[in-house]
Specification:
Structural class: alpha+beta
Helix content: 25-40%
Distance between the termini: 88 Å
Order of helices and strands: EHEEEHHHHEHEHEEEEEHHEEHEEEE
Largest sheet: 6 strands, mixed
Length: 431
């Protein structure tokens, strides 16, 4: 198996095209790419230019901090999944959107823990809320060639006495729908799943398999994305080619191919290639680890400062590239409770310790954070969806079993290791 970035002249490019060599891949997203940078000058049919979304200094900082959160939660998940050679995908924007709605209801140490986990230290709730509203309002319509849909909702169990300012805040800042729900209703799970399916164009299905009888509230974020490549692949150029799941385990997969102008850079242990959608407001950045570098090792190098530098490198311009990229389609589902607790949010999951007094005066805590994603990558573009469900439960006091020996009873005295019964008796009147 060969991993390489080859810089070539036009003659070499012709040779390489004939060879049609495929480089193997990044298990991060199941992506393989061959990058050959050439000096050939080819016109690039650009269907418009990216529309700049202007952010304030505080809003840009929050986006940067959200990306830091994304890298910190992504890296250990990649490390765990690659041990089992499994595909994975998360939507950090979906997760942070849902947790920012959580933040609006938290108080005291719980508020500090959630804010710290999100990397929003020192940022006010007002700044955070304004940023997410800005992103929702501007990211959705920015590219007419890309479908981007974001939906939020809050589901209130009938026993929850909610504080109306909390619901009003979610409606104002996150454009959230407020729904009532009865956890005892057998149809409740299907109703919630139906909402998620509708908002994700049926790409996220059967996300919830049950609702706790102690359910207090659900917070849900759903995202749907459908982007067409700026440079679409020709289906006639797609053919079965080897994909190296491991260096010694190639499998044949449908591999797309094209020669086009793409931005490419090298990180030190991986090659980055950027594939724009539509007018360029959205793109896919493919990270191909170098030979003898694992996806988890490449993921471990991700951090905001290096990422910004790499993105700046990619913005410097495109060059002729021979690109091989597999078609792929898969789903991924994960319970994020342990991941978030490890990042410092443990108090929010602790009955009796969690403080969500900005939601209700009743004692509630987060019982589950479910995350599910879908992606389909083909010659036309990428379709993706994600949903995050934060489940709150009422804090239940530990149940106490009452045994009142107030009537005749039998008793047995035994040796516990052997099971030998030494005495046995009856008490009818203990006087």
């Amino acid at each position: 198996m060969i991993f390489a970035t080859i810089y070539c002249n036009p003659i070499t490019a012709k040779v390489m095209k004939k060879l049609y060599t495929v480089l193997a891949l990044s298990a991060i997203a199941g992506i393989s790419v061959m990058v050959v940078s050439c000096e050939k000058d080819k016109g690039d049919p650009v269907p418009g230019d990216p529309v700049k979304i202007d952010l304030s200094v505080a809003q840009k900082t929050i986006v940067d901090q959200a990306n830091k959160f994304a890298f910190e939660i992504f890296t250990p998940i990649v490390a765990g999944e690659t041990k089992g050679t499994g595909n994975m995908m998360i939507s950090p924007f979906s997760i942070t959107s849902a947790l920012s709605m959580v933040l609006n209801g938290a108080a005291g140490e719980t508020f500090d823990a959630v804010r710290h986990t999100l990397q929003y230290d020192e940022k006010t709730l007002q700044e955070i809320n304004e940023t997410y509203l800005k992103l929702m309002e501007d990211m959705i319509p920015v590219d007419p060639r890309v479908t981007m849909e974001i939906a939020n909702s809050v589901w209130l169990e009938k026993r929850l006495v909610v504080k109306q300012p909390y619901v009003d805040a979610l409606k104002k800042w996150y454009l959230a729908e407020a729904r009532n729900i009865d956890a005892s209703d057998p149809a409740a799970v299907d109703i919630v799943n139906g909402w998620i399916e509708e908002k994700t164009h049926d790409r996220i299905q059967d996300m919830l398999d049950y609702l706790s009888p102690d359910l207090a509230m659900l917070l849900i974020n759903a995202i749907y994305f459908d982007g067409k490549w700026r440079h679409q692949f020709d289906k006639d150029d797609t053919s079965d080619m080897p994909f190296y799941v491991t260096p010694d385990s190639p499998v044949d997969v449908p591999m797309m191919y094209q020669e086009e102008n793409f931005a490419v850079t090298h990180t030190g242990n991986a090659t980055l290639a950027e594939l724009p959608y539509g007018q360029g407001n959205y793109s896919m950045v493919v990270m191909l680890p170098d030979e003898n570098v694992t996806p988890s090792e490449a993921a471990a190098t991700l951090n905001p400062s290096d990422w910004d530098r790499w993105m700046q490198d990619l913005s410097m311009g495109a060059s002729e590239v021979q690109l091989s990229l597999p078609k792929f389609e898969y789903e991924y589902k994960r319970e994020l409770k342990d991941d978030l607790a490890a990042m410092g949010m443990g108090i929010a999951f602790s009955p009796g310790a969690a403080d969500f007094s900005n939601i209700t005066d009743q004692d509630i805590f987060i019982s589950r954070v479910l995350h599910q994603t879908f992606i389909k990558n083909d010659e036309e573009g990428t379709e993706a969806a994600a949903a995050t469900v934060v489940e709150f439960e009422f804090t239940s006091m530990p149940s106490v079993t009452v045994v009142n020996v107030n009537r005749p009873f039998l008793y047995f005295i035994r040796e516990t290791t052997t099971g030998t019964i030494v005495f046995m008796g009856l008490v009818v009147d203990p006087r």
